[in-house]
Design a protein that fits this description.
Number of helices: 1
Helix content: under 10%
Largest sheet: 5 strands, antiparallel
Distance between the termini: 22 Å
Structural class: mainly beta
Shape: globular
Strand content: 35-45%
Radius of gyration: 26 Å
Strand order of the largest sheet: 1-5-4-3-2
Oligomer: single chain
Length: 547
């Protein structure tokens, strides 16, 4: 892609204004600038979505805090932009344009543009006329799914179960977007989950679609096949059960794939097991598999679920905060074990690879996988819901599943942020309405508090795993993970976002601080030295602005 340094642009823009009557300026220069364009960190550059100009402006930092801008044209009438979960790609969906009689603007189909380090790839969606604004992104980077989104400008009449599946690994000329309409029994899709490739009998990655009353399973390797829809009912009455989240176990050669489903309005947790669906000759029928449904009453509404390895084998763990407990479910037999908790924890994540050797469990059972460790936190606001805990799923003192180690966090934890290597054993804990955030060290089970004076603070984690950025108003602080030392930056304008990017070639990373209002400005720092004397200020970037 052709890049240009951000300099000299203001004079060119003024000259362009004088020449507008001569047809020497693109029409988008006359369009109003969005009050606050979307911006995303793509590891090596910052992507700013310039909707009126139908483009994305890529900002990359060079030596001496220089800033280079690269415009990337996308389809007209941008509807949505979503980054990939790993932050390396940006997906932009555009509505296109349907030309009327005498319309000087050409016809343009809806499109999806993928922007990454290899350059932009545009997939024209010629098989639909009405654009779909919703975007669900496969964490593995294989697929993107478009769907109707009520929060965006959509068609007057739409089918909420319409999907478009795009294979974004193939180049645009080879990838054929597939339209798929889910068979609906009255439900509307609420959440999308992409699985890894599942072992036999599924043998493919799945798209799991949760509606407000059922769950659908669609093979991503062949989305033209009919999906399998699992209606949710407890069998004791006629009320419909609403799924509230799923957990997936891909299978391991000995255990078949499993899907766990928690419910928003029932005490049951659902476990789906898969069996082969084949004729007498062993030839697959339909999708080649069928799900069987097991329901287990856990004594309350589950707030989170996860598949975990214990000394007794694989279990589906469900947190039940109303009873201050967790329930471990054998997904095959549905037998349960309740584990009392010191608080009504609402959320958990598996952190086995980040904690080293668990302190009290047996580690690796004979012939099995290592027992897991889960990080528990609340996210609630009631008294007594403060803090976090580490739950070891092995044995301690011959009491299975009872090693729960609380960490001295005195605030309600509202969010947990992962930290990339080399500090992968750290987590950043955001508190709710508190006066601090915490750097949690899973390896030694300590939590360092960093006091703050504003509970509206925004967070940004260095993609290189060096520091956490916190900012509000015109205040920006960088706290390095090695020494937990906060340092302030000298910023003279309101901050819209802080983005740390890799400059490559052995250079220290740069921090690009975007400013609110106008045509977007930026202050560029050396992220390692944070030297005020070497920072550079840029203005009017959307107008190809100047330092």
């Amino acid at each position: 892609m052709k890049r240009r340094r951000a300099q000299g642009g203001r004079l060119l823009w003024l000259l362009g204004g004088l020449l507008a009557g001569c047809g020497g300026r693109d029409a988008f220069w006359s369009q109003p600038i969005a009050s606050q364009p979307l911006a995303f960190d793509l590891r090596t550059e910052v992507a700013v979505v310039d909707s009126p100009a139908h483009r994305v402006l890529l900002l990359s930092a060079g030596p001496d805090q220089s800033l280079t801008t690269t415009p990337v044209n996308v389809g007209v009438n941008i509807l949505n932009a979503v980054p990939s979960p790993d932050g390396t790609r940006l997906y932009v969906v555009s509505a296109g344009h349907r030309a009327t009689l005498g319309d000087p603007a050409p016809d343009e189909s809806p499109s999806l543009t993928v922007i990454d380090e290899t350059g932009p790839r545009r997939y024209d969606l010629t098989n639909i006329t009405e654009p779909l604004a919703g975007l669900a992104i496969d964490p593995a980077g294989n697929w993107a799914v478009l769907y109707p989104d009520d929060s965006k400008a959509q068609a007057f009449v739409q089918n909420p179960n319409e999907l478009v599946v795009v294979d974004v690994l193939d180049p645009p000329g080879q990838s054929v977007p597939v339209t798929h309409t889910l068979m609906s029994f009255g439900g509307r899709p609420q959440r999308f989950t992409f699985t890894d490739p599942l072992s036999a009998p599924v043998g493919a990655p799945l798209l799991i679609v949760e509606s407000d009353q059922d769950v659908s399973l669609l093979r991503l390797d062949d989305p033209t096949r009919p999906e399998i829809t699992v209606p949710l009912t407890n069998g004791s009455d006629t009320h419909l059960l609403s799924p509230a989240g799923v957990a997936v176990y891909p299978g391991d050669g000995q255990t078949a794939p499993l899907v766990g489903i928690r419910l928003a309005n029932d005490h049951d947790v659902v476990a789906l097991q898969f069996v082969a669906n084949a004729d007498a000759g062993g030839n697959p029928i339909g999708n080649g598999f069928l799900p069987t449904v097991n329901l287990t009453d856990v004594g309350g509404v589950a707030s989170d679920i996860a598949f975990v390895h214990t000394d007794s084998g694989l279990r589906l763990a469900a947190l039940v905060p109303a009873s201050a407990k967790a329930t471990l479910i054998d997904p095959v037999t549905s037998l349960t074990t309740d584990v009392a908790m010191p608080a009504g924890y609402q959320q958990m994540s598996i952190v086995t690879g980040s904690v080293g050797t668990p302190s009290g469990c047996t580690g690796v059972p004979a012939g099995g996988a290592p027992t897991d460790v889960a990080l528990l936190w609340n996210g609630g606001t009631a008294a007594g819901q403060e803090g976090v805990a580490l739950w070891e799923l092995g044995q301690t003192g011959c009491q299975p599943f009872r090693s729960i180690d609380t960490v001295g966090v005195t605030d309600v934890v509202a969010g947990v942020f992962n930290v990339p290597p080399p500090h992968g054993s750290l987590k950043v804990l955001q508190t709710r309405g508190g006066d601090a955030f915490y750097i949690l060290d899973l390896s030694n089970r300590t939590a360092a508090p960093l006091q703050i004076l504003n509970d509206s603070l925004a967070f940004s984690i260095s993609p290189l795993g060096d520091q956490v950025w916190t900012y509000v108003g015109e205040t920006v602080f960088a706290t390095d993970f090695a020494h937990e030392l906060p340092r302030s930056l000298l910023i003279e304008r309101p901050v819209a976002g802080v983005y740390e990017v890799d400059r490559g070639a052995g250079q220290d990373p740069a921090a690009i601080i975007l400013h609110e209002g106008g045509a977007i400005g930026a202050t560029v720092y050396d992220a390692a030295t944070l030297d005020d004397a070497t920072r550079r200020l840029y203005t009017d970037l959307l107008l190809e602005g100047t330092p």
